[in-house]
Write a structure and sequence with these properties.
The complex is a heterodimer of chains A (112) and B (116).
Chain A (H helix, E strand, L loop, with lengths): L3 E2 L4 E5 L4 E7 L6 E7 L6 E7 L4 E4 L2 E6 L4 E6 L8 E8 L7 E2 L3 E6 L1
Parallel strand pairs in A: 2-11
Antiparallel strand pairs in A: 1-3, 3-8, 4-5, 4-9, 6-7, 7-8, 9-10, 9-11
Chain B lengths: L4 E3 L2 E4 L5 E6 L6 E7 L5 E8 L2 E5 L7 E4 L6 E5 L8 E8 L10 E2 L3 E5 L1
Parallel strand pairs in B: 2-11
Antiparallel strand pairs in B: 1-3, 3-8, 4-5, 4-9, 5-6, 7-8, 9-10, 9-11
The chains are: A mainly beta (112), B mainly beta (116).
Chain lengths: 112, 116
């Protein structure tokens, strides 16, 4: 079941630059998309979300873009900071359905 | 800030033994979930629980698994007869509401289950 895919297992970015993490999905019925951040030995922490009726949502340094026709979303972090080094998961859900479907994650490393 | 807590942080058990993983969700949350992550793989949904009953479960959640809310604060996952392939990180999560908005689930730190 590969409904949500993150094709880049890892990404390295210089501190201060923009980090772009990508996610593709196959199920056009998804209503909501979320990004979670995970540090080792901790649970996923919610970062930002976007409804399928929008194409952009911004929260501080984090912006999520949704391209429904391409079934693609991306998370932009700018400027990147060392504390952003973590594994980032995208997840998708349907309204009224509790289950989150996660991607495989992308390990982001910010180089000082 | 309220948080989801889980105990124990690490559980080692022999194959065939029963284990109970415990979670204390955020106090005003109504929906509770278990997910697991096998090493190197994605986080997978196991089960959701609302109003003292299972509302959805995945194909992973077979008869060996059960969930319970034994009192007003704890939420448990029981594996009756553990298998080697049950070794994983198990995450509990909780949320205020489902539907009409995004489903922000708050996750606990996880219990690492090792089956020998």
């Amino acid at each position: 079941d590969q409904q949500v895919k993150q094709n880049s297992p890892s990404l390295s970015v210089q501190e201060g630059r923009i980090s772009i993490l990508n996610c593709d999905y196959t199920n056009s019925m998804f209503d909501y998309f979320l990004w979670y951040k995970k540090y080792p030995a901790e649970g996923p922490t919610f970062l930002i979300s976007i409804s399928s009726i929008k194409d952009k949502n911004e929260d501080g340094r984090f912006t999520v873009f949704l391209n429904k026709s391409a079934k693609h979303l991306s998370l932009h972090i700018v400027p990147s900071q060392p504390g952003d080094s973590a594994v980032y998961f995208c997840a998708a859900a349907n309204f009224g359905n509790e289950k989150l479907t996660f991607g495989t994650g992308t390990r982001l490393t910010i180089i000082p | 800030e309220p948080e989801v807590t889980q105990t124990p942080s690490h559980q080692v058990t022999q194959m065939g033994q029963e284990v109970i993983l415990r979670c204390v969700p955020i106090s005003n949350h109504l929906y509770f979930y278990w997910y697991r992550q096998i090493l190197g793989q994605k986080v997978e949904f196991l089960v959701s629980f609302y109003n003292n009953e299972i509302s959805e479960k995945s194909e992973i959640f077979d008869d060996q698994f059960s969930v319970e809310r034994p009192d007003g604060s704890n939420f448990t996952l029981k594996i009756r007869s553990t298998k080697l392939e049950d070794s994983a990180m198990y995450f509990c999560a909780s949320s205020e509401a489902v539907g009409g908005g995004y489903n922000e689930q708050f996750f606990g730190p996880g219990t690492r289950l090792t089956v020998l």
